[in-house]
Design a protein that fits this description.
Elements: H1 2-16, H2 40-48, H3 66-83, H4 87-97, H5 103-113, H6 124-131, E1 134-138, H7 139-147, H8 149-157, H9 170-190, H10 200-217, H11 227-252, E2 257-266, E3 275-277, E4 283-297, E5 301-310, H12 318-322, H13 328-343, E6 348-358, H14 372-382, E7 386-390, H15 393-399, E8 414-415, E9 418-419, E10 426-427, H16 429-451
Parallel strand pairs: 1-4, 5-6, 7-10
Antiparallel strand pairs: 2-4, 3-4, 4-5, 6-7, 8-9
Helix pairs in contact: 7-8, 9-10, 9-11, 10-11, 13-16
Length: about 450
């Protein structure tokens, strides 16, 4: 009891020492953010002096500690550009600037509050040191630059790469699909087999042999390293069989014949589509590889169709093309047409279509009693290619000569022999030419920006 009174006496002495002003403060919350009740002393003082009023830190006449003052100054400078500074903010700023210890902090806060980012890039000298005068790379590289210039700089400027791990990643599954499908088509061509007469048993046997060969050669022993990977290898075979079935059915409905698999194009082929001059000593030299190229020839012209296999759900989108994010198909078609024009200078070479085929094994709903043929037709429709088709009626007929209302093969719908553009993805010959020109100009613009060290 005596100790308690002694403490209160000392507290009384402390409170009566000030000559001009006494300021009392208390914490409103603890370190975890929970609210706290003020000391009983605050309540006793309010009873002794009923005119006392509490004020929050920062209100007029209430002093701040250093941390509170710096926080309030930073918040105020952030809002200054929106609503203008107030007198309290100016007083705080003046106090910081006049303090030898905190003057530099105030300068940094002001600089940060009114900083405006300006795109300066890395500069032409640094760009030349990193990239040289000629940009060599794939179309994917240019698409990555359009998507994120910084990611392009990290990948192709600093050449940063993620450390490879001993695992079966999504990209590896995609490679297994590509390699298995390509090997299957190559064997069909080598053995002179006909897609229209190949039996289901023969197709499955060939698929099993192709997938087995690819998986045995892929990634050393990673496919046998776990039960999960072994299961994925079986899944690759099932979906590959579904894929070659669908691709074969699509070929049966048209007149095109596959003539090339993994067809590579590069600047070394002296194709204008792959060699884009920028200035006297600067250029963009591209390389690329088409998963599959089909041709169809009649008395009037040679029609070209290119297909890119995708293990995801990629869809052809003109908006993405406009922003430089989806250039591959148009560049590959440009190169394929140029190559065919060299081979056949006596005939007109026409782009029939550019397509993505999404590798998948869809499940369809069964409506009542359906025949196997009806089920297969519904699955085939879900596996239809997406892309851009030439409005040339001869090209459409060669792509799908069984089309009546809506094609199971290409993104085209017709009524009474007329293309229903609202339900189709089509473009005329002039539009294909315009797309080729636009993509070339886009690639040149991106090339100049890279070599100038912009962004």
């Amino acid at each position: 009891m005596e100790e308690g009174f002694r403490q209160r006496f000392y507290l009384y002495l402390a409170l009566t020492k000030p000559e001009k002003e006494l300021v009392l403060s208390y914490a409103a919350m603890d370190g975890s953010g929970k609210s706290m009740r003020p000391s009983t002393l605050i309540g006793e003082l309010k009873k002794l002096f009923p005119g006392l009023k509490e004020q929050a830190p920062g209100e007029a006449g209430v002093p701040l500690n250093y941390r509170e003052a710096k926080s309030q100054l930073a918040d105020g400078m952030r809002e200054c550009g929106k609503s203008g500074g107030d007198l309290r903010l100016l007083e705080l700023l003046k106090a910081f600037l006049s303090s030898p210890d905190h003057k530099e902090e105030a300068r940094q806060l002001v600089e940060a509050a009114f900083y405006v980012y300006q795109q300066k890039g890395i500069g032409k000298a640094a760009a030349k040191a990193l990239y040289g005068s000629v940009i060599n790379g794939s179309v994917t590289r240019m698409e990555q630059y359009a998507s994120c210039a910084y990611a392009h700089f990290l990948s192709y400027g600093l050449e940063l790469m993620e450390r490879q791990e001993y695992e079966l990643a999504a990209m590896d599954i995609g490679n297994l699909f590509h390699d298995s499908i390509d090997l299957w088509f190559a064997r069909m061509k080598e053995e002179g087999r006909d897609f229209k007469t190949l039996t289901e048993e023969e197709r499955k046997t060939m698929v099993h042999e192709c997938v087995t060969k690819v998986t045995e050669e892929y990634g050393n022993t990673v496919l046998k390293s776990s039960a999960r990977n072994a299961y994925l290898a079986g899944k690759v075979e099932r979906i590959t069989d579904r894929t070659v079935w669908a691709l074969s059915e699509q070929l049966k409905k048209g007149d095109f014949t596959p003539v090339g698999f993994e067809v590579s194009f590069s600047a070394d082929d002296h194709l204008k589509a792959m060699r884009l001059p920028l200035s006297g000593d600067e250029a963009v030299h591209l390389r690329g590889r088409i998963d599959r190229m089909d041709l169809c020839e009649d008395e009037e012209a040679v029609y070209v169709k290119i297909i890119d296999y995708k293990s995801g759900s990629t869809a052809f989108d003109l908006t993405s093309l406009y922003y430089g994010l989806q250039l591959q198909l148009v560049v590959y078609m440009d190169a394929a047409l140029e190559m065919e024009e060299r081979k056949r200078p006596d005939k007109q070479v026409i782009p029939a279509g550019i397509f993505y085929y999404n590798i998948n094994d869809p499940v369809v709903d069964k409506d009542g009693e359906m025949t196997q043929e009806e089920i297969s037709g519904r699955i085939l429709k879900q596996l239809r290619m997406n892309g851009l088709v030439n409005t040339d009626l001869n090209a459409i007929a060669h792509l799908d000569h069984e089309i009546e209302s809506e094609s199971d093969v290409i993104p085209v719908a017709m009524k009474n022999g007329i293309i229903q553009e609202a339900r189709s993805s089509v473009a005329g010959g002039n539009r294909f030419t315009a797309l080729r020109q636009y993509v070339q100009e886009t690639l040149k613009t991106e090339g100049r920006e890279i070599l100038e060290g912009g962004h």
